[in-house]
Design brief:
Blueprint (H helix, E strand, L loop, with lengths): L14 H18 L1 H16 L2 H10 L1 H12 L5 H16 L2 H20 L8 H7 L3 H18 L2
């Protein structure tokens, strides 16, 4: 019967070899995640320029104290309506059709731009309004407004 092994020699890696191995591992990770790292640096730069990084750093150093201040502030009577309506506001935001709202907002912006470019001293007669209805853009806008009012008035 053989003897039991009692003396185990561990394979020892020198400190220099371990450092080189770690360096190669970090170098590989940098190469694989280059875009994410650059975006992270850009984000940190923006936070630093805005002064937000210092605030985040201070909050992270004294989390308990900052959380206590936050809870104290949010517990005030002035914020209770906001806290009570927060779940409803969240559900409202989820129900909104953002694509349609973006399209309407774009059209509103274009309308405001046209309005700002117009001369405010011009007078419009009834004949001018009847004539304007023949303009396809005005007719389309009035039709859209009427459909909006019809949809809004439904029960």
């Amino acid at each position: 019967m053989g003897k039991a092994i009692t003396n185990i020699k561990r394979l020892e890696v020198s400190k220099e070899e371990q450092l080189e191995k770690d360096y190669q591992e970090v170098k590989q990770a940098l190469a694989e995640n280059k875009d994410a790292i650059i975006k992270g640096i850009d984000l940190l730069k923006a936070l630093e320029e805005g002064g937000t990084l210092n605030t985040l750093q201070a909050v992270s150093r004294s989390k308990k104290k900052a959380l206590g201040y936050f809870v104290n502030e949010i517990s005030k009577e002035t914020y209770s309506p906001l806290l009570e309506n927060l779940p409803q506001l969240f559900f409202l935001l989820v129900e909104l059709d953002v694509k349609s709202i973006r399209e309407v907002t774009s059209r509103l912006n274009e309308g405001v731009k046209q309005m700002n470019e117009a001369d405010v001293h011009d007078k419009t007669s009834v004949f001018d309004m009847a004539k304007a209805l023949k303009d396809p853009e005005i007719n389309r806008s009035i039709t859209m407004l009427m459909q909006f009012l019809k949809g809004m008035g439904r029960e």
